[in-house]
TrEMBL record:
<feature type="domain" description="Cupin type-2">
    <location>
        <begin position="39"/>
        <end position="98"/>
    </location>
</feature>
<protein>
    <submittedName>
        <fullName>Mannose-6-phosphate isomerase-like protein (Cupin superfamily)</fullName>
    </submittedName>
</protein>
<dbReference type="InterPro" id="IPR052044">
    <property type="entry name" value="PKS_Associated_Protein"/>
</dbReference>
<dbReference type="InterPro" id="IPR011051">
    <property type="entry name" value="RmlC_Cupin_sf"/>
</dbReference>
<dbReference type="Pfam" id="PF07883">
    <property type="entry name" value="Cupin_2"/>
</dbReference>
<dbReference type="InterPro" id="IPR013096">
    <property type="entry name" value="Cupin_2"/>
</dbReference>
<dbReference type="InterPro" id="IPR014710">
    <property type="entry name" value="RmlC-like_jellyroll"/>
</dbReference>
Amino acid sequence: MSDDIRNVRTALSAITEHWQPHRLASINDYDVKVVKLRGEFVWHTHPDTDELFMVLDGELTIQLRDRDVVLEPDDVFVVPRGVEHCPKADGEVHALLLEPQGTVNTGDAGGDMTSTLRELT
């Protein structure tokens, strides 16, 4: 990756669809993604990787089978590999994700909400 500066807020302002992550930057074999979330996603797991969520704006609930984790602005939570989870946002949430390159947003669930990683322009 070059030394280009990316602004998180500017990147988020360019996103028009929910649940469609966009690559902000890459570091080693990981992607730093920004995404807007609203509503309930799908229950899924990532069998081979952890997934980091950082909430920038709004309130995000990460539903786990044994509890709910509520994240507010500036909170970070790591969903461990293999743990089934379902993100849910009653209002719009702006978030940053950190995942290995090639990680599919719906993990092992697939389906209509599966997104191809988009590049910010």
